Amino acid sequence: MSVEAYSQFSGQNCAVFFTRPANYLKLKNEWYFWYNDHWAVCSYTDWMYNPTSMWAMTYYYDFGASPECGATDYATNGEGYEYDGGWHGGSVWSGSHYLPP
């Protein structure tokens, strides 16, 4: 599962990216699991910031051989933002899928 943050010139060609200083990109991820009749947080990351100048950052996580919260449905909510006088970005809900034990 992954989440990304990247920077583009506002109102410009979508293929034009520009480098942001350290701490101008941030992202985090939350992993949810289906518990009884609702979504519950299984695990999450703290905010992560770009350590050096860059135009994009990505965070990947591998559950390994078995999911952390047992065999059930899982979903993620990833958030990514870029600072340009204010934080711009948002979150994306993944939809869900079943992970076996």
Give a brief outline of the structure:
With 101 residues, this protein is an all-beta fold. The protein contains no helices and seven strands.
Main traits of this protein?
mainly beta; 7 strands; five-stranded antiparallel beta sheet; two-stranded antiparallel sheet; 0% helix; elongated; 101 residues
Number of H- or I-type helical stretches: 0
Say how many strands there are: 7
Q: What's the mean pLDDT score? A: 85
Q: What fraction, in percent, of the residue positions are helical?
A: under 10%
Q: What would you report as the Rg, rounded to the nearest angstrom?
A: 16 Å
Q: What structural category characterises the helix and strand content? A: mainly beta
The proportion of strand residues reads over 45%
Large-scale geometry: elongated
> What are the segments in which pLDDT stays under 50 over at least 5 consecutive residues?
none
Through-space gap between termini = 17 Å
Q: Major sheet: size, sense and barrel closure?
A: 5 strands, antiparallel
Number of domains: 1
